[in-house]
Amino acid sequence: MFSRTTLNRLLFVLCLGVPIIGPTPAFSDDSPQGIVGQFQDSLIAVMKEAKTLGVRGRYERLSSIVERTFHLQLMTQMATTSSWTDASGDKRHDMVNAFRRMNISTLATLFDGYSGETFQIVGERDGPQNTRIVETKIIKANQSSNDIAYVARQFSSRWYLIDVVVDRGISEVSVRRSEYARILKDQGVDGLVAVLNGKADELLSAAPPTAK
What we know:
The chain contains seven helices and four strands.
């Protein structure tokens, strides 16, 4: 179902749908593998209902899934680096809402069907800076697969996901940090917010109507 480019884009989106105030409660099975497993099960469920939900229904469903799985405010901070540090509270508010709209809109657009994909948890190991790495695969109907590693960190006794690495490559947060750096340098926070909100509007307005 997914090309490598689409998969990379999709997986990073899962890291950047951002709530306004801190992380939301984690899943009841609060362990790195438990959170990843339930997250992936939820994604498959949305894929199976994609046509019925339509893009806006997928947006709403995926928004809640993403927000309860990832420490999303930290992901925004990591992606914007010094711009986050220098920003006022209102500017941070604008950034996280723009990231949330753009990335979940992209996710809702890409998650438009199901073709027999499954997820498999391969194992778990220690990562840098007190993180745990949960290694998984997405297996397509033709039995080809992509490696997906989720980076988890514990906050106040709860585990949250903070990054995704595809096919043992560069982390998606690092890729987006580089991508957004030029916009932030040339246009500042307001420019980045405008770009992201514009992309979200484009994705949602361009989506075809749900089939009846």
